[in-house]
Amino acid sequence: QVTLRESGPALVKPTETLTLTCTFSGFSLSSSGMCVSWIRQPPGKALEWLARIDWDDDKYYSTSLKTRLTVSKDSSKSQVVLTMTNMDPLDTGTYYCARTSRHAFRFDPWGQGTLVTVSS
Amino acid sequence: NFMLTQPHSVSESPGKTVTISCTRSSGSIAGNFVQWYQQRPGSSPTTVIYDDDQRPSEVPDRFSGSIDSSSNSASLTISGLKTEDEADYYCQSYDSSNHVVFGGGTKLTVL
After folding, report:
1. Cα(A55)–Cα(A36) distance, rounded to whole angstroms?
2. Given a cut of 90, is residue B89 above it in pLDDT?
3. Is A41 helix (H, G, I), strand (E, B) or coil?
4. What is the pLDDT of residue B1?
5. Pairing between β-strand B106-110 and β-strand B87-94 as defined by DSSP bridges
6. What distance in Å separates residue A24's CA from the closest CA in chain B?
């Protein structure tokens, strides 16, 4: 059974850097073809893809957020880490990680999500 | 980047059939696979259709997906509507530059 779980701070201040960790089980990010993505959802709004990291350490980022995002992995710990710099209240939302298919960007399954609020 | 446009909301009665559209603004809808996700309130999204028209084994066959190159759009059709189908539905695709786009979501009400 594949599971993913996001963890990180529930509250960050404007201009601070957010660091989120995705801990997963049921698959290995060392295995060819495996990928993990981050997706977020502001309250009451649509989903927005942020980043993807592949088993071979290739990384892909949202064009609009590229300058603020960094994704990394620790395959031995089954973890993927997302950092987002210069946080703004508009970045408030639920952040999800999801296993991702390399050939079609299918996100399945998703973690339960973690709500991040940006406020002073 | 391209956009995926969905109706904001649709509603239908139990037992009926509803279709949700997803129109791609640029680039061919047939050029990259389309996925559909169901998101119930307070829950994470789950896949109901992947690779345009494939259904995960756990999803009832009342759910089906298709693409139409003439309108450059994808569609999710749910037949025999049940109250449990009430949720937000998102289409999603990508392009050759690995840009991923979600549609704006459609709220399905089963009344």
Report:
1. 9
2. yes
3. strand
4. 84
5. antiparallel
6. 16
